[in-house]
Amino acid sequence: xxxxxxxxxxxxxxxxxxxxxxxxxxxxxxxxxxxxxxxxxxxxxxxxxxxxxxxxxxxxxxxxxxxxxxxxxxxxxxxxxxxxxxxxxxxxxxxxxxxxxxxxxxxxxxxxxxxxxxxxxxxxxxxxxxxxxxxxxxxxxxxxxxxxxxxxxxxxxxxxxxxxxxxxxxxxxxxxxxxxxxxxxxxxxxxxxxxxxxxxxxxxxxxxxxxxxxxxxxxxxxxxxxxxxxxxx
Length: 233
Description:
There is one protein chain. The chain has helices spanning 3-21, 28-39, 46-55, 60-65, 68-72, 79-97, 109-119, 157-166, 187-199; strands spanning 127-133, 139-147, 171-178, 206-214, 217-220. It is of the alpha+beta class. A 5-stranded mixed β-sheet has the order 2-1-3-4-5, sandwiched between helices. The chain starts with a helix and ends in a 13-residue tail after the last strand.
């Protein structure tokens, strides 16, 4: 059997595996192989896929978060492969930011955790997002509210409340993204929750949760006995 036939057979097996089981049934290097077959059509890309993943320490998400220049500098990754990888990374962020998620319902920790983990993988800096929900707990919008430059969050509750009212929200969820640090609440997170909770106390606007996305997981303050009294969901 020629190398060309062998290569085409391998590519077809990867495609068939994806069609049968979806991404959940594939290893990361196989998914990268599948992408690279469309950018590098006449070459065995298995080792290139392994090399690409290993370059980022096996972190699949970092492959798609990398900038174009970094990708082009990796052995075997040319301009076509780099822009295709960037496109795959940018599509979920674009869908998220353009409001395609308004049918998402956030009415439990499980649904909040799933939303955060599926939608926020593209955020790679310390920042605070504000999620507005309607009376049916559907997401109206979820956008970055401020970037935390010095590692310490200091919110202005009235601005957050104003943002919620402009979007006609019935409830709020704050999401703190800490990509380089632990999900454990810091003093600034607790202070922010207390300040916003006090400001919202006499409003017909619920404060449902404060979720922290860290490098080691996701944490919901409303389901922790130490903080649950600050929330009104």
